[in-house]
Amino acid sequence: MLHFEAASASPGEPWLNIAIFGAFVAITMIIVFRASRNNKTAADYYAAGRSFTGGQNGSAIAGDYLSAASFLGIVGAIAITGYDGFLYSIGFLVAWLVALLLVAELLRNTGKFTMADVLSFRLKQKPVRIAAATTTLVVCFFYLLAQMAGAGGLVSLLLGVGDQLGQALVITVVGALMILYVLIGGMKGTTWVQIIKAILLIAGAGVMTVWVLAINGFNFSTLLDNAVAATGNPEILNPGLKYGVSEIAKVDFLSLGLALVLGTAALPHVLMRFYTVPTAKEARKSVVWAIWLIGIFYVFTLVLGYGAAALVGADVIAAAPGGPNSAAPLLAFELGGPLLLGLISAIAFATILAVVAGLTITAAASFAHDIYASVVKKGKPAPGAEVKVARRTVVIIGIVAIIGGIGANGQNVAFLVALAFAVAASANLPTIVYSLFWKRFTTQGALWSMYGGLASAIILIIFSPVVSGSETSMLKSESIDFAIFPLSNPGIVSIPLAFFLGWLGTVLDKKKEDPAKQSEMEVRSLTGVGAEKATQH
Amino acid sequence: MGNDALSAETETAPPVDYRAVQQSEEFQRLRSRHRRFVFPVLAACLVWYFAYVLLAGYAHDFMSTPVFGSVNVAILLGLAQVVTTFAVTTWYVRYANKELDPIAEEIRDEIETGATFTAEEATR
């Protein structure tokens, strides 16, 4: 049996974990340096010269999307709250159908580097670009903060660094590495980090899955029996342990489900990945690859979650440093000792690094391309200036992420990922769908929908139980209570509201948009005429 | 080497009369084939997903029914969501390859070679 000496002690060998992670960093750095020799133009820096294949980009999307929340969070959620943890996985996966059927190809055909390229295509450039860049930056910021704060928690578990200063140092190292990757490698370097990480993550989870099944005689039902026996709670196989406790919890889950399924196809860092392939057909192939990889991975999480419950035990996981997030690493230790724990820990760090890099380049591209080049310089920046601004933005975002990560360390900020999905689904998706499919859609509709969706999602979350009202909320006090909105996820209100505002703003708009632009956008989106080509090297 | 003149290919090509393309029978066929597939299929997938979420939320007894061994309806329906996602993906790719790509390619070729739809021709 496992024995934990102190709450801050990590099982396994911290130095082994660090050495394996160091090897990952060294190998990816070499690849990033080699890949980045041609980073000259904006198309190279933001879109990797549009030279990746569908398979490569699909793997990178999986690497971008399967964040630490997916891997550590879902395995832990299944180990502790049973079936309800799996509900997340399904929402995260089904969401890709929206991206595949409605968004990926049309976006690749009409845009250049950012989401705002598509949204402002046939509307008024300046206000729509500013709005789209604002929502992009907000979504990236929430997502980034959640990842960086998660890094702190991970450190205490995997490296045995218990004190605040040590954790702050590790967050700084992770942030500095990320800045280096994105600064040197641009989108090409970021993509390779994501591809390597996706392969390692899925292979690692696959090996553990087969291992867990082998221990249970390759019988899934036996695994479930063992999980029930170990936890002494047959309810872990049934839905309801987490989201069935009250009527509010049920509506809350519906709200979360809505945000997950509609948010994915509107996440700016996911959308930007579609520009790294040469054609819309390759964009389609990317999504197909991503769906298969992500789907298979989420099936693994089901086995790993119940495996952790059966082999490690829910009580041990809940008591370990890092709480539910420690389920996957503890399972790795139980199966393969310090070496497998080291590998899985290194993969978890690589996961944070890759996701953070993807978010940073997206935010930097949005600022440099949408705000600086298109609005400030009115589409005519000096040669090379745009990429220079993007690189400086990367450094600034990196520093903000480090400071934010240190500040949020130890805070309960897990809700930020769900909030990022809710903001994306409310502020971005209605405008994406309307501008691609509704001829009459106008600038006023876009602005009402984007700002209305953004503001309602954020205001509702501020007045929700995740920010105030209980010991487990962000303010950690029962005496401060302004939680007048009962749900923890705003999606069920803010998403329909944003769709409604987009419609209302349009029908009340006295100005009509240029019909020639609408014709051009529709023809280009479906046929690929005039789409940005791959750069020649 | 790096391609500094990013918009070179769009500048040298003759201006295209997109209005005419949009109204052409060929394009209308492409547009309706696209919409006829993606809207109903996506709507069906979302209905199926929310049915699953609502069952998980409100039909605990049904979802907890064991089917074989300890594997219950909830786990099977969850895996069924994964299977339908894979199936719809494969279905769409086949449909797009067969029904959408050939027309899109034809229209694109016509425009890019300047055979039809250039603005000069339309005003002539």
TrEMBL record, chain A:
Taxonomy, superkingdom: Bacteria
Keyword Ribosomal protein assigned: no
Biological process terms in GO annotation: plasma membrane acetate transport
Transmembrane domains' residue ranges: 15-33, 60-80, 86-107, 128-145, 165-183, 195-215, 253-275, 287-320, 340-368, 389-408, 414-436, 448-467, 487-508
Annotated PROSITE patterns: NA_SOLUT_SYMP_3
Chief place where the protein resides: membrane
Spans annotated as Disordered: 515-537
Gene3D superfamilies linked to this entry: Sodium/glucose cotransporter
Keywords: Cell membrane, Membrane, Symport, Transmembrane, Transmembrane helix, Transport
GO MF entries: acetate transmembrane transporter activity; symporter activity
Localization in the cell: Cell membrane
Record carries keyword Transmembrane: yes
Topology versus the membrane: Multi-pass membrane protein
GO cellular component: plasma membrane
Similarity section: Belongs to the sodium:solute symporter (SSF) (TC 2.A.21) family.
PANTHER family attached to this UniProt entry: CATION_ACETATE SYMPORTER ACTP, SODIUM/PROLINE SYMPORTER-RELATED
Protein name: Cation/acetate symporter
Organism whose genome encodes this protein: Agromyces cerinus subsp. cerinus
Automatic annotation (TrEMBL), chain B:
Organism: Agromyces cerinus subsp. cerinus
Full protein name: Uncharacterized membrane protein, DUF485 family
Transmembrane segments: 37-59, 71-93
Keywords attached to this entry: Membrane, Transmembrane, Transmembrane helix
Keyword Membrane carried by entry: yes
Domain of life: Bacteria
